Amino acid sequence: MKSIEQKYRKLNDIEHALLRPGMYIGSTKTRTCKHYVLGEHAKFDLTNVDQNPAFLKIFDEIISNSADEHRRDSRLNRIDVTADLSTGYITIRDNGGVPVAKHSKHNEYVPEMIFSNLKAGSNFDDSEDRLVAGTNGVGATLTNIFSKEFRVKTCDSKKEFEQVFSNNMRKRSKPQVKKSRRKGFTEISYLPDYEQFSLNGLDEDHIQMMRKRCIDIAACNPLLRVYFNGEKFAYPSFASYCRLYADAVVYEASERWRIGIGTSNGSMQQVSFVNGVETKDGGTHVDFIANQVVDAVRARLRKRHKVDVKPAEIKNHMFVFVSTDIVNSSFSSQTKEKLITDHRDFGSKHELSEKFLKAVCASEMIQSILDWAQQKKKADERKALRQLNKRLDKEKVVKLIDAKGRNRNKCTLSLFEGDSASSAFRKYRNPMVQGAFPLRGKFLNVAGMPASKIIQNKEVQSLLNAIGLRLGEDAKNLRYGKVLIYSDADPDGDSIAGLLTNFFGRFWPELLENRMLFRVMTPLVVAQKNNDRKMFYTNEEFESWHTTPDAKGWHISYKKGLAALEDPEYRDIIRDPKMFALIPGDTLRKSLDDWFGDDSSIRKQKILGDTE
Q1: What fold is seen in the domain 245-371?
Q2: Cα–Cα distance between 400 and 476 in angstroms, integer?
Q3: Where do the domains of the chain lie?
Q4: pLDDT in tens, 446-489
Q5: Whole-model pTM?
Q6: Check: CATH 3.30.565.10 for 13-235?
Q7: Helix (H) or strand (E) segment spanning residue 185
Q8: How many angstroms separate the CA atoms of 437 and 413, rounded?
Q9: Nearest to residue 147, comparing CAs of 197, 208, 81?
């Protein structure tokens, strides 16, 4: 049982910050994540780095102070950062000074007051419009608390101040103040308490992340020169910074807004800043710009390309760059990773120009969205197809006259126009190897139709089930080794054969390549004399025979399709069909020309000789 004293504790500011760092500076756990690092070719590369958010935050608190002072007074135009790998010390120096004077109310020098008190600073007058990063007066003091040593030097051109804090700000030296005519400067040098971050010391990854922050500050403040370990960073405009991420960026700016739009890698990307502070998680300022772009792009896609894409899907193709100055900005947490200020309280408004939006709509982003939309459409079709195919597995083909043999490769499926041939087929077929499926009218013309729509056709469903085919899948484990197309020897019959050939050839060209699809010819004229019967498949063949003396005494019947055939004729075309294989490419076109073209002599030769 805990005592009252053990159960209830009262902590001072230092103890509370060290015990609950997440509340003040974010996570103290090092994690591996992808982050932009300036590469050898002066471009940002998305690279895996080990970074400790809290460790970087205490660095940011100090350098943001310098950037804020630059925003208040442009005479502060240089920041120098030194990070020493060997000693672990980090130093930030700018050419602006803090007033070296005692505060009359608190009887404390201003530098000591603002760098060692969690609730001290110059940003507490909410009647003023602030365009700086600092808001709560806790930043630099947190760096002090999380440091083994924290040294403050500053000069206001009249006096120079120096003080050293140690042991997580629990100890401090007496301020050293002397007269000085040196130009104003402020220098903060601190040795982080690496144990608080579970770090062994300063490492290359954190060096790179601090370097990146220096680049960001220079980009957000065009009149500011920032040096990191002697390397100078200065950018004439935010546009040049945006193009370190992407070559093609559409850009425009106003007094308080700098905006760039590029094409992302498939998910929305954003690099954004509020008053010079990076908002890693974006926020209302990014939404404000992105939504304007989405509205314009969506209207363009609807009007020009007849494509309707959801706003979130458009955003997935956007790389948004925003650097803005927001009055009295509010964030989701002390770490300032997401802006939550309502757009009506920004203190300024930027409506994207028509010229800018036209440039975005003419950029690579539009084609990227169209390519994605096409891929999504195909993926949706494949998904719908899989679902419909599963349903087919459960359905029985009522019209199918099935073959009974177990060796399905030797079985053939005959496709007939209508039901008229069904009774004759049953009478003359070999039931072990011959099956039939009656088609109702003309088969579906699948040209230009998506597979997901084709499979909704009942006739298609029944035919697929009969053969064992599935749209979107290879032709394998089929119920028949050959498919024979029986259709009338007239234009309608040719059309049905062509539609079926187009259907099979489009989705399963291997059926044609492996000679599994055949067209069966039906007789146009039948001559009968006693028990003898002759069948003619072309008019030319019949006329050539009909003019000979052998033709005398024969009864001539002209057949207008399968429905006009009699049992003996059905017997012949079922038991001994005259057929040719439909095969792909030039050979397929030649075969169709042979059978359906104007030159009947080729057809006659095939009937008399080659039946394959």
Answers
A1: Ribosomal Protein S5; domain 2 (3.30.230)
A2: 20
A3: 13-235, 245-371, 396-608
A4: 877 888 788 888 888 889 989 999 888 889 889 999 999 988 87
A5: 0.69
A6: yes
A7: strand 185-192
A8: 7
A9: 197
